Amino acid sequence: MPAASSSVAVEPASPKRRRIGLILAAVLVLVAGAAAVFVAVGGDDNDESAATTSATAVIVAPADLPAATRTPDGLGDDDELDALARRCYEGDMRSCDRLWEDAEQGTEYLDYGDTCAGRQPAATQAYCVNTFPD
Hints:
It contains 5 helices and no strands. By secondary structure, it is mainly alpha-helical. The chain folds into 2 domains: about 30 residues; about 70 residues, no CATH class. The longest helix has 27 residues.
């Protein structure tokens, strides 16, 4: 007896199936693009490159965030800490907290980050992101 043939006829996909496939592919591309933007903007709090983000980045502070009462001038001569202080001043509360965590005890940088650029009193023991959430 001859062996049974295992070939199966495959029909081409219908136009409706092709459209669904194209829509799914487009959605996947959009989701991947959004994820890339999220990571590039700073979605990962542990990203060490956040301190060296380009000065051209625009920080959009929440509308109800109080204005900074201290400018980031004359805090010291550390470029990375200066960048964090500028972003803190502009309203990026994560940068204020990061400045407080990275600065040495007794420095102006530490005091600046501790007060969220003058938005809260010193020594509150409160992170800026908790006092002024997005």
